[in-house]
Structure prediction request, 202 residues.
Amino acid sequence: MFEKDGEKDKNFKYKYELPEITELISCPSCKEGKVQLTRTVHKLPDGEDILILLMECDNCSFQQNDVLTLDTSFKAGTWDLFVENEEDLTQKIFRSPDGHIYLPEANFEIEPGSNSGYLITNVEGIINRMIHWANYMMDSYSSEEENEKKITSETIATLKNCLSGKQSFHIIMKDTTGGSYISSSKKKILNFVPLEIEKTDV
Prediction:
């Protein structure tokens, strides 16, 4: 359930007042257009309320997402989601520009780049991204890199098994800034270790 500016879902008790936007900012990319801001309040399956900000330029292709929690602060640490079946592929993932996502069963990691923004997706979306990058790697290998091709081919096969529900797996997301979050309607498959505890155990 969600509510955009000026809209109300009667089944969702709206308890946040969004201030009126009176001034548009210039686009940081093209410098000519104006950035339109769309704000959406969204209730996650675990009860957390978040504010999703979508910024789009009316002149160029600039677009940026941000996610803010409205109830509690996103904490720095490591999220571990155990995906048992195809139903779990719909669990929501919010990765900040500093979040690292790792799928150990396929030994594949998505690292944030210098221009990374917020990524709002689900487990299925993460796996599809991994398959896309693995295929890109396959196409970039030379004819002499047969071993690399074999390893990457095995990785793609594992990712496809995860996507089809043939294999259970973990999605591990680590964020030292506290901007990332995994929302699951099934508490038993999700674990979170705060950064403070991780430092203590070292």
